[in-house]
Amino acid sequence: MSTVTDTFIAPPCHDQIEILYQDDHLALINKPAGLLSLSGKNPQNLDSVHHRLVQIFPGCTLVHRLDFGTSGLMVVARNKAANAALCRQFSERTVGKVYSALLCGHLADNEGVIDAAIAKDPALFPLMSICALHGKPARSRYRVVERFYREAEGGISLPLTRVQLIPETGRTHQLRIHSRQLGHPILGCDLYGGRLLPGTEQTPRLMLHASELDFVHPISGERIAARHAAPF
Questions:
Q1: Which of 20, 193, 204, 217 could form a disulfide with 222 if both were Cys (CB 3.0 to 4.6 A apart)?
Q2: Is the pTM of this model over 0.90?
């Protein structure tokens, strides 16, 4: 088994975590793009959602993660009971998740499903790959919100599609690699083709935002429907 060395050093993130809701059991936050969810093994990657939040909520734990480049809604457990109950909801896939994204080009269909197994490939790290033979099942749905053009550098008129992405499974990089599989990578995605089209090279961030999170409060049993609009 080949060992994989992660050489990624995160640039400093000056944006703050926005705390949208808190009680004794959990906190609901808006994660900025460009911030790791968990601190890395490299001491230069100490800054993260968890590192910042334990200063405010000692003993808090993450029950799910967002990619470094993804912004949006995360729920954080403030004690062991809340952690166990929330983790169970995520593992049983009863948590509703919707992401907002800008995809390169204009999608032909207004909605659809991407069903393509995803595998880790140590030789390509940190890239994941579509692999029917060795991959784990992965399924995402998409809905078109609007098709439009955006003026890019050099007077280029860039065709973009705003979509809602709904992951039915939770594989690493799932929405990013599934969007590429669709032929329309997420704008600003450096790993899966979102900076290859003319006019996309200088995109300031990955245009992917966790905009909806539906779950049951681990203690009160109340249904929580969190919403946070994409900043792009």
A1: 217
A2: yes
Q: What are the residues facing 29 on neighbouring strands?
A: 19, 74
DSSP string, the chain: ---------PPP--SPPEEEEE-SSEEEEEEPTT--SS--SSGGG--SHHHHHHHHSTT-EESS---TT-EEEEEEESSHHHHHHHHHHHHTT-SEEEEEEEEES--SSSEEEEE--EEE-GGGTT-EEE-TTTPBP-EEEEEEEEEEEEE-GGG-EEEEEEEEEEESS--TTHHHHHHHHTT-PBTT-TTTTTT-STT-TT--S--EEEEEEEEE-TTT--EEEEE-----
Place of tokens 């599989």: 181
Phi, psi dihedrals of residue 135, rounded to the nearest 5°: -80, 160
Instruction: Tell me the per-residue pLDDT of 175-225, one tens digit each, with 9 for 90 and over.
Output: 999 999 999 999 999 999 999 999 999 899 999 999 999 999 999 999 999
- Active-site residue (options: 6, 23, 47, 67): 67
Q: What confidence score (pLDDT) does residue 225 get? A: 98
Quote the CA–CA distance of 227 and 224 in Å, as a whole number: 10
Q: Terminus-to-terminus CA distance in the chain, angstroms?
A: 41
67 tagged catalytic? yes
